Structure formats: structure tokens, C-alpha cells
Amino acid sequence: MAGWQALREELVTQVRAHGISGGVAEAFRAVPRHVFLPDLPPETVYRDDAIVTKRDADGRPISSSSQPAIMALMLDQLGVEPGQRVLEIGTGTGYNAALLAHLVGPGGQVVSVDIDADLVERAREHLIDAGHPEVTVVCGDGGEGFTPAAPYDRVIATVGVWDLSPAWLDQLGPEGRVVAPLDVRGVQRSVAMERAGGHWTSRSVVPCGFMRMRGPFAGPETTLMLDRASDLAISLPGAGEIGDVLAALEGPAVEMPTGASASRAQLHDGLSLWLAMHEPRWCMMSEAQPRWLASPPLDLSGFTMAAGIIDGDSLCLLEPEVDDTLIVRGYGPERTRLATDLVDHVNAWDGAGRPMTAGLRIDAYLETAPPEGLLIHKRHTTLALSWNAD
Questions:
Q1: Domain co-membership, 44 together with 123
Q2: Tens digits of per-residue pLDDT, 297-330?
């Protein structure tokens, strides 16, 4: 493990470049990530990448060590203070729980819940090896929270959630805050929420991407593994029927210029959110090894990603050129029609002033009636979305 200290310092430097607070950065400096990923070389462990740690029978990733930069952003959103009690949903390797334990200090308490018994057992071992045996790790359905240790000052979900669980909100103290990667019609945004009268309102919203919650609290969004060799997968906002995607990608393509340019950050942030809000056929494709996607539009967390539209045996994807000029590539028998629709969406987003996540406000209503506007109805809550005028 020689040389991991220098690699960890480099990771801390990269994390701080995202505007992370000194306290959270110090937690990353104090907690060794390699203890939670003992089978990997330090050169891999200390990259600012997500690392898949478990797959299901179909080869789909179902657990990972999250990208450190995203973890840091969410910990800053959480605003953990020494002495607080924190509930974490999704233990994974235990690394984030150790960061939380460092932040709350000896006077605080961290409870972490995971649905997989094998992950829970390994996380307990990792936490002991890292010097944090005080963390309580529970095997159970995270959607139920953990009543015996409530109330909590903070609740954080490190797994993509379709809706806010009423149990989390009930187990929070009066001044509590919840941070969760919340589904917004198929895209995820990490939302920090606090009570505001009879509902919950966002204090900050940032882009993110997490594996989805499993069990009774899972949502309708679907991820399908298309090619295990490259980890090519497609994510859909709901349970939809799709055709032979690989055959379409291997067939003839049509290219259409959009007349617009955008950085990869704008694609991942504003344009993907616009598609989710305005296009029910929208999809996101990703792969870990270059093979199927013509270019890397969204190189995040160790995966190449591309947003687009899918309809049966046809699909189209947004892809930037070297100069960030956006083009659309269409595949399948209806490639021209879909590509035209996607170009129209790009132009509409551009004409609307390119709204981004930074100006997004999300209010969650459990019992009181939400105001008129852009509403998303969930199982337990209704989300009301709006953008700040500035």
C-alpha cells in the first residue's frame, strides 16, 4: 500500500476543487478509502470515480463505492455538526458512514442501514479496520429508517430514491434535514430539504447519479443491461418496452446538427433535466468500456453517458463534437423522426435561457395541497418544481 498517502492527498485536492468545505475535505483526508476497498490497488481506489462492488444475476451494478466528489457535495449539503445523530440509508462499503462518524465526532452517533446482509457484514469489518467501530450498521429495508435510534438530526440516502420515505421525515427532529438523490422523472438530483410550514422545501439541489433503491420503496424507473462486455446499459424513467437497441446501434445512422453548443456539464445538468421534464420517451445510456457510444458526451464517475430518445427499435443520442457543438445521431427505422424531435428539444432548451439545476427549487407536500405549477405525483409526496427568476 506504499504511496497511498500521496494519492489520497491528490484526491482531497480534486474534491476541494468542487468548492467543498474545509471540514468535509478534512474528513476525506482522515478516512482511508482503501480500507473499504481492500482488494483494489491504491491507484484505482484514490481516483475520483465510482467503483462497482456488487452486481445482480443479470450483471447490473447494484452497489458501489460512490464518486468521492459527489459524496463530498452531499456531505456539504447535509451540514453535519459535531455531536449530531445521523441516519444513513445505503451502507455499501461503509466508507461514507466512516466520513459521517468523523464529522459527528465522539459525541455523535451514526446509524447506517443496508438491505444486503453480505454488504452489512463486510461494512462492519471495514469500519472496525478504519477505527470506527462505534458506527451502528443495520441489515434492513432502508425505506423504514431505524426507529430505535430516532430522532435524528440528519438523514442522508446514498442510493437513488424515487420518493421521500415518510419514515425518514417522521424520524427527523424538529430542526432536521434530509439529503437524498431524488428521482425527477428519471433523472436524479441530490436535494437537501428542511421543514417549511406544512411541507418540505429544498435548501440546495445539485446533479448526481446513484444506483436505485431496491425493495418495497423502489420506483418504476428501469435500468437494462444491454452488453456486459462494455457494461452498456440503458435507463428509462418508467417500465417501458424497447426494441433491439444493439441492432439499431450496429445499423445505419443519421446525423443532424442542432446549431447549438454546450459543455458536458451543461448536457448533464440542464439539458438532461429539460428532456426529463418535457420528453416521456427520454433515456440515458451509459457504458464503462468504449464500444457502442460514438463519443463520450458525459464522462462521469467512470462511465461514458449519453442522453437521448428511444421509441421501439429506434433511438437517437446527443453527442458533442470536439468544439462542444451538439449533434444528434439517430439509429433504427425511425431514426430521422426521433433525431428531428431531439433537435427541437435542444432548440427549446436554448430558447428558454438554458435553465440549469442551480436555479431549481423542489417542494415536497405530504398532506397539504401543493400550489399550481409543474407537479410530479409520487407514492407518498407531490413534488412542486420551480426555477428562480435569477
A1: yes
A2: 444 455 688 899 999 999 999 988 878 899 999 9
Judged by DSSP in three states, 203 sits in strand
- Mark 162-186 as b/e (b = at least 16 C-beta within 10 Å): bbbbebbbebbeeebbbbbbbbbbb
C-alpha cell at 172: 427527523
Quick one: 114 and 246 in the same domain?
Answer: no
Q: What average pLDDT does the segment 255-269 reach? A: 88
- CA dist 192 and 201 (Å) reads 8
117 and 226 belong to one structural domain: no
pLDDT digits (tens, 9 = 90+) for 101-135: 999 999 999 999 999 999 999 999 999 999 999 99
Asked whether residue 293 carries a pLDDT value surpassing 70, the answer given is: yes
Which member of 66, 272, 286, 314 is catalytic? 66
Same domain, 247 and 337: yes
* DSSP of 148-182: GG--EEEEEE-SBBSS--HHHHHHEEEEEEEEEEE
For residues 72 and 195, membership in a common domain is answered with yes
pTM above 0.85, yes or no: yes
Q: Is 66 a catalytic residue?
A: yes
CATH number of the domain that 180 lies in? 3.40.50.150
- Domain residues for the domain of 171 are 4-207
Domain total of the chain: 2
Q: How far apart are CA 341 and CA 248, in angstroms?
A: 18
